[in-house]
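Data deposition worksheet. Section B asks for the primary sequence of the deposited chain exactly as it was used as input, without tags or linkers unless they were present during the calculation. Section C holds the resulting structure in token form. Section D is free text for depositor observations; keep each observation to a single sentence. Incomplete worksheets are returned to the depositor.
Section A, Depositor: J.P.
Section B:
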Amino acid sequence: MISRFDPARGFGVYVHWPYCGRICPYCDFNVYLAKTRDTSPLFEALLRDLDGWRLRTGAREVTSVFFGGGTPSLMSASQVERLISHVHDLWGLGPQAEITLEANPDDAARFTAFAAAGVGRLSLGVQSLDDARLAFLGRTHSATDARAAFDKAKACFASVSVDMIYATPGQSLASWREELSLALLMEADHLSLYELSIEPGAAFAHAVRRGAWRPPDEDLAADLYELTQDLTEAAGLPAYEISNHARSASHRSVHNGVYWRSGDWAGVGPGAHGRLSAGGRRWASEAASAPGAYLRQIEQTGVGFPAAEELDALAQARERVAMGLRPVGGFAVSDIEELGLSLDADRLADLTALGFVVQSAGRIALSPAGRLRADRIAEELSP
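Section C:
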């Protein structure tokens, strides 16, 4: 079983900032209300967590840094700059290293400072360009605010991605066509377009259980997805992954590519996940979730996670299939074979005959029809 670090798969750093000014009802991420918290202890803990990861990874070159959350645009530009500098001091940033910050439109006043701090790519949480849907989604900005924030971002960053959510209650094909068409006119470099999912821990799950509203049925959701592919393709932003679209290869997410290729990444911050290949073994980590528990964990061990779980060949193969099917290019069969395992040849042949899977040049990828069934197909194909 091969579990050594492969630089071709990439090495990223994910920094989780857990605080939000308001928690959106669809969100089940590890987030907490910012209120008037003193965030300096958490910031110092992030620096120490990075130190702890450096001891475990050894010398490597960082291909991407991603500030996620939560709402990392609530951080100060000086905090972001210091974290970027610390990553560079510990590992070294590659010459083409991508540095992404997730941001709310509400924080547009800080965009210039974030760019000066070293952020080159902004992921803007627009979510909708319809004021009624924004209110339903619990967002605090308006469609006008979102457009203004996008214009500011385009003036500040080399690459700007826009996040949007569709398949909300009452949304028709016509209304989504109108809304997505407006988004495409903004000429973002990258779009992340997500179907609204009802996550068990989110407020929306409670609302659906008590019958307050119902999500669209599966057929309408599939029609909305297919419409999304048609409109983005025609506008020059084809899908390069199930939910992600880019104007050119240079605007594709480098950091997400680390996940899809089953590379390594340091997961820093409360609840952050990480992966580490070292010494012929591969490890999965998950930092303590609550900020207080995370701070205590850092004090005790110098790293945010209490223990790492070793992933055996089967667990690695299943991750490689699940993540490798997401980009349109799929994954190489050799990715599984080098782990000493193989895919179910009969099931692969069945899925190919059904038109859900495409096999070419030693690679396996989902067809457009298969992308609608990605999770199920990954389960069926996995060893």
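Section D:
The chain has a mean pLDDT of 96.
DSSP finds 15 helices and 17 strands in the chain.
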